Amino acid sequence: MTMKIMVAIKRVVDYAVKIRVKPDKTGVVTQNVKMSMNPFCEIALEEALRIRESAAAASEVVAVTIGPSHSVDTLRTGLAMGADRGIHVDSAASLYPLSVAKILRKLVQIENPSLLILGKQAIDDDCNQTGQMLAGLLNWPQGTFASKVVLDKEKQVATVDREVDDGIETVCLNLPAVITTDLRLNQPRYATLPNIMKAKSKPIKKFTPEELNVEIKSDLEIVQVTEPPKRKAGIIVSSVDELIDKLKHEANVI
Amino acid sequence: MPNPNGRATLGFRLRSLRRPTYPPLFPSATPSSRFTLHGKCNDVVRREYHQVPSFFNSLTNFSQTRIWGVGIQRKCYGSIAGLVQRNPGFSKLNDDDVRCFEAILGAKNVVQDEDKLVASNADWMHKYKGSSKLLLQPRTTDQVSQILKYCNSRCLAVVPQGGNTGLVGGSVPVFDEVIVSLSSMNKIISFDKVSGILVCEAGCILENIMSFLDNEGFIMPLDLGAKGSCQIGGNVSTNAGGLRLVRYGSLHGNVLGVEAVLANGTVLDMLKTLRKDNTGYDLKHLFIGSEGSLGIVTKVSILTPPKLSSVNVAFLACKDYSSCQKLLQEAKRKLGEILSAFEFLDGQSMNLVLNHLDGARNPLPTLHDYYVLIETTGSDESSDKQKLEAFLLGSMENELISDGVLAQDINQASSFWHLREGISEALMRAGAVYKYDLSIPVEHLYNIVEEMRSRLGNTANVIGYGHLGDGNLHLNISTPHYDDKILSQIEPFVYEWTSKHRGSISAEHGLGLMKANEIFYSKSRETVQLMASIKNLLDPNHILNPYKVLPHSLIS
Ligand SMILES: Cc1cc2nc3c(=O)[nH]c(=O)nc-3n(C[C@H](O)[C@H](O)[C@H](O)COP(=O)(O)OP(=O)(O)OC[C@H]3O[C@@H](n4cnc5c(N)ncnc54)[C@H](O)[C@@H]3O)c2cc1C
Q1: Is residue B63 predicted with pLDDT exceeding 70?
Q2: B484 burial class (0-12, 13-18, 19+ CB within 10 angstroms)?
Q3: What ipTM goes with this model?
Q4: What is the third-level CATH fold of B188-303?
Q5: Which end of chain B is more exposed for a tag (fewer CB within 10 A), N or C?
Q6: Residue ranges covered by each domain of chain B
Q7: Would you give the DSSP letter of residue B209?
Q8: With b meaning 16 or more CB within 10 Å and e meaning fewer, what string describes B515-541?
Q9: Which pTM value belongs to this model?
Q10: Are A187 and B361 inside 8 Å of each other by CB?
């Protein structure tokens, strides 16, 4: 039996970029700012590739991105990392987790993957909802915050270690299933030149939300985006006495 | 259980990758006595030293003594440090001196505490160690002026110190010189967003200036591995080259003005903020690269380029050195205006980094003999990337590149840079290191590495890396311990070889103490003599950074 893995990837402001809030407080500045693949999505894709490479446990890895036309660049990165083909759902509208989950559900119905891997969250909106909503919509089991994934192809079961507050929780999922990835799952590979070259000829299928019959709307309204309050600069005290004095009289903590 | 959430935690991961943390200045490992100045070399010193003339040398004696300079360094293969004797012309520090400095600076900025002096007495490599009893921390140009005026009148020797990351023993005292640290002069004075001209005090740490400029949408025209500690005053004084020189040129072009204090306390205000100013001799250049031997740099004005939004970094493997060289030629043509760095490391450098540097990971699936890091900086992400990709794929087809990776995000780019920038640190962790910083015409550049390797056999790990785009090789010889026998195999061979190929024995690190006597390998007698005359003119008592830069025979 051949097995297909679908991975969702998102283009976000590179996490090493210092975020600036727009003066009108409607969002963050994205113009002339370096955009890259969401790091958790990179980890998701890496995991899919490793599963494909390990004893041919999967035959195909399909990378999906939803977003404006530039998202194709990110998709190409995914293909250069090793995904077999791509799907781009072209939408310039603001997307919220529920819309994304609905689009992904449609694509699952078209592609029929046995496993869906997503990042646990995107570092732009930090929602951490898409994977869970998607599992709900599909009525599939979910293993979120995965720090280890072991796949049994024969039994069609995925064993997932999850990072939870009091340690590691291990869950067994019957396939098909949804997995979302945590930071420590793996270290993603780099895009090598031969693979970048190959990626240029890999197919990318295009859809629009309308073609998939998904209406993009949101019940949320963003009221305001502001920067966190600036921390006051610290001071260097010159003696223990001065420290005690300040703790007593200025900080009023002792 | 830590739950890494989004940007904040990831940011930490990046920072820990990007910033090499240097080993503390004074670990328990003690450098071999050869490199401390009162070591076992003293016998050699005495035998050789009688030839060196006395301190207050008149100008007319120079041509005579110069010959000795050559003679000495040819005859004695030992470390230069071992050859120096304290100049008896210098006074010894006394309590009155200290009181006087306290009156100028306030007691807090006059440091005598031995523990605090330890770090300032030893260099970054733990190779050179002085025994200064006094560290001064002026906060203003006027204080620097008063300090120098006093030292000059008392004939107290002075070593100007910036971030103390210099690699040639220039930034630490040789004996008991008073250390004048610029660290407290760390204010940014002005920044003009239209012209990109920054004026700041000499003690500003390079990385702090970089982050200041980043907020303004500009970058420094220089970048180097020591950015977290080195100061702009130190960079200017060593005419530091670094990683962006191939794009933005040297500090002789980018520094527009300097304020410097001469040995007698005179403040030279040459702090212009003009790109063009042809009025007489451009004396600021005397202070760029003179390693604190002519004056103390207190302020700098510097031209900074705008920060461009699109930066791409590729890490490549080449099968042989000649491919690296051809790749450079091609890159200059095909990447043209967007090429911002072309760095080179050999397989031995890579192994060293992978074995000794935290967080280092080979970006390529296999090991190779030669690696090149290419960075492009431009204003249009998609066209820049296209251009670079086309160049790289083309070079792969031509077999100039055997494998390679292209960073897909800033983190990946940083981790490629980490490999190149972390070599110095990895060398430090690997044991003893002999560092040579050579300019050699690119086509011969790697030959010296191979010759050195066959000379030393398996007694040492010889590695070559550097700024290939500028014809600058860092030849480093790593051994478990410092060893005179190995040193005698390296020097003077390395200098002779470089001289024969019309190279420079110091591309960017300067001469410092390490190579003061070797200057003739790269400069003619007449030139060096003029340098000595300038030194005599500006610092007649030779109190500024003694024993460094110029041959001891001329300046003793
Ligand atoms: C990891 C590492 C990487 C490096 N990479 C490079 C590189 O790529 N390119 C390169 O060129 N160099 C490099 N260097 C060496 C480089 O020379 C220094 O890092 C830097 O330029 C010196 O600055 P500093 O503030 O540390 O000066 P110091 O080390 O304190 O001093 C250097 C010299 O300048 C003098 N000096 C310092 N400040 C002043 C001042 N205000 N006025 C007058 N004289 C002064 C000192 O007396 C001394 O002679 C590297 C060093 C390290 C440790």
Answers
A1: no
A2: middle
A3: 0.87
A4: 3.30.465
A5: N
A6: 188-303, 310-423
A7: H
A8: bbbbbbbbbeeeebbebbeebbebbeb
A9: 0.85
A10: yes
